[in-house]
Amino acid sequence: MLSGLLIVLLPLFLGYLVRVRSTQLQNLINRAVNSSVYLILLFMGISLAGLENLSSQLSRLGGNALLLFSITTLFNLAALWWLSRRLTLKAGNSPVVKDAPTSKLAAMQGSLLLVAVVAGGVIAGLLLGPHLGERLFNSADLLAEWVLYLLLALIGCQLRNSGMPLRQILLNRMGLSIAVTLAISSLLAGLAAAPLLSLSWNEGLAMASGFGWYSLSAILIGDQLGPLMGGVAFFNDLTRELLAFILIPLVIHRHTALAIGYGGATSMDFTLPVIQQHGGVACVPIAVVSGFILSLLSPPLILFFLSLSG
Hints:
CATH class: Mainly Alpha
Strand content: under 5%
CATH topology: Proton glutamate symport protein
Helix content: over 70%
Shape: globular
Oligomer: single chain
Structural class: mainly alpha
Order of helices and strands: HHHHHHHHHHHHH
Radius of gyration: 19 Å
CATH architecture: Orthogonal Bundle
Largest sheet: none
């Protein structure tokens, strides 16, 4: 039952064993991770093009993603609001942050580019499908699987060389509280959404375990449950990030823990500049710790829950 879990987790653990001291090599790894994500999402788009009754399937994808996102957001916001009232955490004055996004659209550009890559894959699949047929879609699935293994190894290496010792993470009580609250509320949302999405309880938990890490959740879910559910996971987690960009400036001074936590795993990277810009430098270590913990939890949780089906 756990063989699939071990096969996919092995590259992650092997990558975590590799210590990289060269800044140039770390930058190369970061670029390779980004390239791998784009490549896999392109293959996911091609696989989506191979679905029968594509238009109705895409409509189903959008409906399911919206349903899962709505339930997850409701649970997350309620739990983080409750936590915000109990943590003595207040954002500071907003400093001028170097290289921070100058507008919400600028902050969202990376997310929107990923949507464009998936759409490009669907278009490529539709154009090439009549000529290459089933062979194209099977090759896309196989290539995505091998690139996934490479990506997991690179992600493991990134986590090891992030400069964040586990002792420092576990001692940051606020970051840990935010991460645990976000994780538990997301899993409860997954259980609530599962019957509405015609999923088993463990599949619902897996769908909710991306915690905003849309590139990884789409890849892992798509590999096990097919490109349609992979697309649902992708758009569910991507929409979380897009809403976080809008939500953070509005609530960070009144409900700081909510603003930091809602972005999930992205609070350590993509939404971090927005958190720093509007909440001050005091919010940065809390956001990084929260995002880091959720990034560590997401892959094993997704794979564990999916393995229960086998």
